[in-house]
Amino acid sequence: MVTPLLLALVACNPPVADDSGDTDSVIDDSGDTGAPDGPVSLAVGEVVDMDVAEDGTVSIEVADPGNYIVILASFAKGQGETHGYGERYEEAARTEPSDVPPGRPADVRPPTASAAVGDERTFDVYDGSSYVTITAKVTAVSDMVVVWEDQTTPNELGAIDEEVVNEVIFNLEDHVIPRERQVFGEESDVDASGKIDVLVSYTVNQYGAVAYVTQCDIGPVVGCGERGNEGEIVYLGVPDPDDSYGTPAGITETVAHELNHLIYGWHKYVAQDQADASENIYLTEGMSALAQDLTGYNNGNQYVWAAALDATDYLGKTATIDSVSINDVLRGSSYYDTERDGALRGAAYLFLRYAFEQQGGMSVEGDGTLVDEGGMAWLHDWFDSPELGIDTVEATMGRPVEDVALDWFTALVVDGRVENDNPAYNYQPRVEDPVTGYEFGVDMYALIHGWLQLEGPELQKVDRNDGEIRSGGVEYLKAEVAEAGEVRVAVDPEAKAVARILRVD
Q1: Residue 323 maps to a domain
Q2: 29 has pLDDT over 50
Q3: Strand 66-74 to strand 58-62: parallel, antiparallel, or no bridges (unpaired)?
Q4: 6-9 and 196-200 strand pairing
């Protein structure tokens, strides 16, 4: 949740918030990780814990030659921090300050009555520098959706084609809105219209976003005062018909993402009288990405989770597992990193998708009917829990977040790479949505849109690595063992490291 104002797709600028009250759980750093005593013989695909010494060193004696991967995780609590390991472990940890833009003002206007085609009203909207007042006209109304178009702000893209609008409305009414309500919970209805408003305005383009919502519209939220456009409103940029976001499927996926922000904000904050509550932006963005997936539009979202795994030139140098940290997607409410934004959004989705599946997930029948296998009930528990961030993970999953995170880090490198029958170390197979044709879920080795080939999380050699691990992050280190002996990695003890080893052949 980004308070007090905007939850945006693509461009997100959260305010600074106080994180001094963090009471998240602490790992057991007594040194007992359940590692085996003496040399261990691993079958291909088997995973075991490594020993952690008081000085931070992780080690294990393996009985057999072969190729292994060390899963080295840090459970230090810092955000944006790195710690040394390997030959560089003795170096002091370097802190990388995050770029946290200031919060924005919340000067918005009161509501008007429910609308019909041709009706006009004013909205106060954000254009990237300030709030401006625009007039918008209703261009389409259905049982669940009202479409408004900005009549004030000039743009070079023109109005959305009527056929595109009609297809988007059909997609929203036929499955997106009903599915979101079933999977996550009902949205609010503060204007008593029973509808979702989609306001198309070029001011969103000027802001640099594809779309956004503001919690002030369904308030009360600290920072909004008594003001708000009052309604379940998705502010949508004018789509470029030549861009993937401008297709009916792209627009539908965008609205599905933003609608989830509204549902989340209503259940988590407003309905529970937590007007001053907020959470890490990446947690809420990851949840909305999960909504894109579970409503059947896991399309553009593929690029998001690829950014947490892929190191190609296309996605950029920070599109790698090295940019991921569980702290930076779950802890506090102020953390934001413009350089690592894609990787952190992708990591949040991958983590929440993993947790959803570990709780049972859901199945989809041939006619599109959703059957809860435990994951939907877990999401309802999450949305209705007064706990925030990491506390919600632990309250709804009944495990310390470090245990969940370590299993998740393990699954990222095991799934699709080797055979392993432990459900905790695997994602569920992807299946096609019988309604939309897109696939639910994750594949570490997906060929995305026919050209972006994923190859799982990036690996480094155990004896030739970058020597840095993020607080709350993970490093995957390849170890080629020519003969029985010790696999050992020295780690700065401030990293609070734990480790596992996986045999790959």
Answers
A1: yes
A2: no
A3: unpaired
A4: unpaired
